Amino acid sequence: MGKRYYCDYCDRSLPYSVEARKKHDYGHHHQKLKKHHFDQFKSAREQLQDELSREKCRRFHSGQDCSFGDTCIYSHLTDIDISNLKQQAREEELQLKKLRLPTLVKNGKEPSLESWLSRKEQKVQSTSDYPVEDSTDWELKYTIPPNVVVSCLPPSLIPPSAESLLQYEFVDWG
Ligand SMILES: [Zn+2]
Ligand SMILES: [Zn+2]
């Protein structure tokens, strides 16, 4: 038995030779089935554009059977099909827009302006009560990593203490 070539699109096998395969690949039947295969993965908007760019199939729309079925080069979509497809395309677009939103907004947890303002208010109050930051904040911010030997640090890298800043004397430059 000679080598055979199996075409997934057409679901048939044929004797293999370069010419035979080329001839098959350019064949009308194969091209239609191949297009049909990829059409399944088109978005609703692409399908809609594709269908609207084709003429309506006269046989199909006059109530007769069109032997080409799904692979007909003319459009078999009815007005209802088209309006359904339009609806689908709109929904697709909404989904896409949703995907592009920030995570908080997507999960319905968008921070409100009110909560932001009230937090800001609290912050302003707390800083006016304590001119020096809360001591735990302070320590967190200026803690030296444990593997650093403090005595080797240049003065500019030594974490300031609250006291040292309160006693600081400002110097005029220049
Ligand atoms: Zn084929
Ligand atoms: Zn048709």
Automatic annotation (TrEMBL):
Domain (C3H1-type): residue spans on this chain? 51-79
Record flagged with keyword Membrane: no
Q: Which UniProt keywords apply?
A: Metal-binding, Zinc, Zinc-finger
Keyword Oxidoreductase belongs to the record: no
Q: Which GO terms describe its molecular function?
A: zinc ion binding
Alphabetized InterPro entries for the sequence: Znf_C2H2_sf, Znf_CCCH, Znf_CCCH_sf
GO CC annotations? U12-type spliceosomal complex
Question: Which chain segments does UniProt annotate as zinc-finger regions (C3H1-type)?
Answer: 51-79
Identify this protein by name. C3H1-type domain-containing protein
Species this protein is from? Cherax quadricarinatus (Australian red claw crayfish)
Organism ancestry: Eukaryota, Metazoa, Ecdysozoa, Arthropoda, Crustacea
